[in-house]
Design brief:
single chain, about 240 residues, alpha/beta, 12 helices, about 10% strand
Length: about 240
């Protein structure tokens, strides 16, 4: 917030930025605390509204088979298994998708991820879209620490129940500046999800980056480090002027 040089009386309000399932958390902050936001920035995953009926994770995977790896993450035993194969796991998820590997085509489908991790025949090398320094940093931060992050996938029913206390907005407030940045080659962002965002958050500014996949922050780091602060400052300035 200091970098935005906001007036002191505005520092109680925030610019929230989320990536991947962090978008879910960021957008829920916008629904729970609409008066606390200056702007909302989502990367890779469009806005997902509160569900009207509960759908178990297994049902969601039936509808979106590409989310099959969620089922593995939801298993409590996956934490230790991933920790035991952490270098291979990070090499897999941060791999350069422009370099095709037939062995990895179906790893996101049900059963695909544990199959890759357990296979001695599938050996993965390199750091993908990360630099060696970034790769080493991730390894150091998640060494024996995967249980907490993976708990997100184990709380679908809890999150559903939490959202039905009657005080949650169905979508971000209409005057909230929203920026959604999507990589054109990102399989997690389908057209249907984008259409929902356009319908429920019509004020959203949607930027689609050609030739970029899921890891926007490293695949398009120059673009992200320019556009995100620029949008945040613009939205914050506009909000301050509106209040005057």
């Amino acid at each position: 917030m200091d970098s935005l040089q906001l007036p002191k009386e505005r520092t109680a309000m925030k610019v929230i930025v989320g990536h991947d399932w962090g978008c879910f958390m960021a957008s829920r902050f916008a629904l729970w605390h609409p008066d606390r936001l200056l702007s909302l920035i989502l990367m890779s995953v469009p806005f997902v509204p509160p569900a009207k009926t509960y759908a178990p994770l297994e049902k969601l995977v039936e509808m979106v088979p590409n989310w099959g790896y969620h089922l593995f993450f939801a298993d409590q035993n996956s934490s230790r298994e991933i920790e035991s194969k952490l270098p291979k796991f990070f090499t897999l998820i941060f791999r350069d998708r422009n370099k095709s590997d037939a062995r990895l085509q179906n790893w996101t489908l049900p059963g695909g991820l544990p199959k890759v991790l357990r296979s001695d025949e599938i050996q993965l090398e390199g750091t993908g879209v990360l630099t060696q320094q970034e790769y080493n940093y991730y390894l150091s931060q998640f060494d024996r620490r995967m249980h907490g992050p993976l708990n997100y996938y184990r709380t679908t029913l809890h999150r559903y129940n939490e959202e039905h206390d009657g005080s949650l907005l169905p979508a971000p407030r209409p005057d909230l500046p929203v920026l959604l940045i999507i990589g054109k080659n990102d399989p997690t962002s389908n057209q249907g999800a984008l259409d929902i965002t356009r319908k429920l958050v019509p004020q959203a500014q949607i930027e689609i980056i050609e030739g970029v996949g899921h890891w926007l922050m490293v695949e398009a780091r120059d673009y992200i480090t320019e556009v995100v602060p620029q949008f945040a400052r613009s939205a914050s300035t506009r909000d301050v002027q509106t209040k005057l």
